[in-house]
Design goal:
Elements: E1 7-9, E2 15-17, E3 21-22, H1 30-42, E4 46-48, H2 56-65, E5 74-79, H3 86-100, E6 105-110, H4 118-130, E7 134-140, H5 144-151, E8 160-164, H6 172-181, E9 184-188, H7 200-209, H8 213-223, E10 227-228, H9 235-242, H10 251-258, H11 270-273
Parallel strand pairs: 3-4, 4-5, 5-6, 6-7, 7-8, 8-9, 9-10
Antiparallel strand pairs: 1-2
Length: about 270
């Protein structure tokens, strides 16, 4: 049975599903195609890819072949670091659009804040947005100071900031800043590749709510007002991850999960990566 997935309204009025499928490390072709088809059958309506994932062609083919109408599917892709800058970003976008085989991209993100380039990259993104080639533009891996710098000259406020986010990394200052500016926070690697499943509190609450550890954490994301994009190519997990809209974590238990924060990243820190 497919899940009914709720949506959030972005700062430009565009509606974005609160749960999507991440396809990082999914091989182009059959593997990513099967994952997208399985996700759409399970009720997902958002697919998150990127140029550097090298699977845009497979994602686009699956979206075009889907029984679900194109205007019901929210597709995100991102410009990679070595293509940042004004002209470079415009060219990278056209390459992504061609690979996806889609006229309009729903959300286009600056993948990382490349020092000395991300402002020009953003200027190109604003042009793409004004020309109607993308429905919304945003950023990924931007800390507060990156956003502050971007907003000094930006004509369009980012609609989304996609960050590593999970109970070990709750980013309260960034979360508060994004709320204040109307920027939707989105979690990548929300399940820490399963590392958090062994946490005793997560196991305890998983049993209490009759949900898997993954479902519990994804529900925690939603109740934190964070859009979430768990990655999987396994049909059972894709279907399981979608069923997080039929229960609610109590305020006390939300606080207990919040207390797991260690400011710990499993991936790169935006301040040192680029």
């Amino acid at each position: 049975m497919s899940a009914e997935i709720e949506k959030v309204t972005l700062n430009n009025g565009v509606q974005m599903p609160r749960l999507g499928l991440g396809v990082y490390k999914a091989s182009d072709g059959e593997e990513v195609g099967r994952a997208v088809h399985e996700a759409l059958a399970a009720g997902y309506r958002m697919i998150d890819t990127a140029a550097v994932y090298e699977n845009e062609e497979g994602v686009g083919r699956a979206v075009r072949q889907a029984e679900v109408p194109r205007d019901e599917i929210f597709v995100t892709t991102k410009v990679w670091n070595d293509r940042q800058g004004y002209d470079e970003t415009l060219g990278a976008f056209e390459e992504s659009r061609e690979k996806l085989g889609l006229d309009v991209i729903d959300l286009y993100l600056v993948h990382w804040p490349v020092t000395g380039k991300f402002k020009e990259t953003w200027r190109a993104m604003e042009r793409l947005y004004r020309e109607g080639k993308v429905r919304a533009i945003g950023v990924s891996n931007f800390n507060v100071h990156h956003l502050e710098t971007l907003l000094e000259d930006a004509e369009v406020t980012p609609a989304v900031n996609q960050m590593e986010f999970h109970p070990f990394l709750t980013l309260p200052e960034l979360h508060s800043f994004c709320r204040e500016k109307g920027i939707q926070l989105e979690a990548w690697s929300p399940l820490t590749r399963g590392r958090i499943f062994e946490e005793p509190l997560i196991q305890e609450l998983s049993e209490k709510y009759g949900k898997s550890p993954a479902q519990l954490i994804l529900r925690w994301d939603l109740q934190k007002d964070v859009v979430t994009i768990p990655k999987s190519v396994t049909p059972e997990r894709i279907r399981e991850n979608a069923h997080i809209f039929d229960f609610e974590i109590t305020k006390d238990d939300m606080r207990r999960i919040d207390s797991l924060n260690r400011n710990h990243r499993f991936s790169q820190d935006p301040d040192t990566f680029v």
